[in-house]
Amino acid sequence: MPPRHAARVSIVFRALNEEKWFADALEACRRQELDGTSVEIILVDSGSTDRTIEIAESYGCRVVHIKKSDFTFGRSLNYGCEAATGDYLVFISAHCIPAHEKWLENLIAPLKKDEADYVYGRQIGHDVTRFSEHQIFAQYFPEHDKLPQDDFFANNANSAISKSLWEKYKFDEAVTGLEDMVLAKAIQKDGGRIGYVSDAPVYHIHEESLSQTRRRYFREALTLREIMPEVQFQLGDFFRYYFAAVLHDLSEALNKKRFISKSPEIVMFRLMQYWGAYRGHNEHRILSREQKESYYYPKPRNRNAAPAQHNATLNREKSPAE
Fold it and tell me: What is the pTM of this model?
């Protein structure tokens, strides 16, 4: 009998000026414990001007470039997948850090065992994560597996698929966001299975301004209304969901004795979240090139802090709600 082919995994990052957390993410990838599986790491860079590429090269990553004029979220991932040699493709944001050494093995396990066709892992907050985002992570990324799940929710900040299945579908290169859910819907429509793995967590670090938060939810809503046209988000929905979310978060903050310090942040974050979603669901203009770039290319994060100072946070356990 011929020797069995050893599995190979390609981890695909996409990045634009992600130097602050990228080294931490790569270091965590380097520490992964795998049994008989080789790993390559690919960075799809869309024009970084900071140390992102330098960091990638220092960790032995293969760097793939995409022009700013050609960039979409789906296209950048397709570039990385085309360059990949792995049997399994793993997607992770450059500001996401695997939380333990079994992250990768646990994430791809359902693919190897044929329990799911496209999987995504848990996301938890970091020390710098806004209070309301901790609540969002807890809502959408629970502590129990869903293998398979009933709906087509998925998130490419921490996900995996076989290369053969990606070659069949590929990511939609035209959508302004939620390319993961567009792919998941297509797979599920053809009888495929979407799965969630709770014990494959990453720390997902958003350090956005409030205006960047609003743009993110606006951009995602533009796609959501296409893949779920039956979902309407009217002004009344905006007020109802906004006040419900604020009251929930304020209650959580009170329980954690953080009510005074977190109340202003909660009110403003949820306002930007739901106002962005409302505007995206009700936007009827065709976006100009300048507008598209403002959504694809938000202003860079504050990168004053050195990556090394955050390494210590990875060595202790954290809850999704601090």
Answer: 0.81
